[in-house]
Amino acid sequence: MSRTNFDQLLQAGCHFGHLKRKWNPAMAPYIFMERNGIHIIDLNKTVAKIDEAAEALKAIAKSGKKILFVATKKQAKDIVADKAASVNMPYVNERWAGGMLTNFPTIRKAVKKMTNIDKLMNDGTFSNLSKRELLQITRQRAKLEKNLGSIADLTRLPSALFIVDVMKEHIAVKEANRLGIPVFGIVDTNSDPKNIDFVIPANDDAKDSVETILTAVCGAIAEGLEERKAEKADEKASAEQAEEAAEVKKRTRKARKEEAAPAAEAEAEKAE
Fold first, then answer.
1. How far apart are CA 226 and CA 88, in angstroms?
2. Residue 167 belongs to a domain with what CATH number?
3. 209 HSE (CA, 13 A, CB side)
4. Per the confidence metrics, is the pTM higher than 0.85?
5. pLDDT score at 116
6. Residue 266's pLDDT band (boundaries 50, 70, 90)?
7. Is 7 exposed, middle or buried (0-12, 13-18, 19+ CB in 10 A)?
8. Across the strands, what pairs with 67?
9. Which pLDDT band holds residue 186 (cuts at 50, 70, 90)?
10. Are residues 198 and 224 in the same domain?
11. Could you tell me the residue range of the domain that residue 142 belongs to?
12. Is 97:107 a contact under the CB 8 Å cutoff?
């Protein structure tokens, strides 16, 4: 069963592309027609591509890996923050720091710096500092939180990127391509789908369009996480059963040994 349908996407305005003069010819396979100088996206293809991307994301989530969501444009940043947080995934919605993937160890150092500031503030180390020094540290902490707070739990490179507007986030796309990290993206008619592994042709400017697509893919991710949780519970239950069976076997052997001991003693006495 499809995670979205034609009517849902139509109502959300997913079919509106850009002006014909702004189009990228590589998007031709996903364009249905042109109306009043604007390209109209083929929503039947969008439905199929959402399902394809959702299944791949579900598999990644089920394997326990992280998916990094990226959207720094005004109309999408709050939606991405909300949806990514709902499935406990990291996201970037303020500014893509160059080298966030290709220079990941440096980014981790900045995150650790933020954690250290918190630790020193809590244990009273900064209590002897002047107001000016404390203000500088507080501002530095706020800046780090704004840019890196949402990826504080990302201790290793993500297994995939989900990008809203691949044209605006071209640096993130390049870094992911360089490292061989698969890229999932909402691709409008003015963008190049060439470097995107899972293309979702749709309007990347309308809030409703972005929210509808993210709801579908995050629903799939949530399913993957639930299945992983269920599998872990089953594994734990199996391990406990195996442990219990081993314990029963051990007790049985001990009981048999204890039962056999008096008989063995009697035989020994008779032999004497």
1. 12
2. 3.40.50.10490
3. 22
4. no
5. 85
6. low
7. exposed
8. 160
9. very high
10. yes
11. 102-156
12. yes
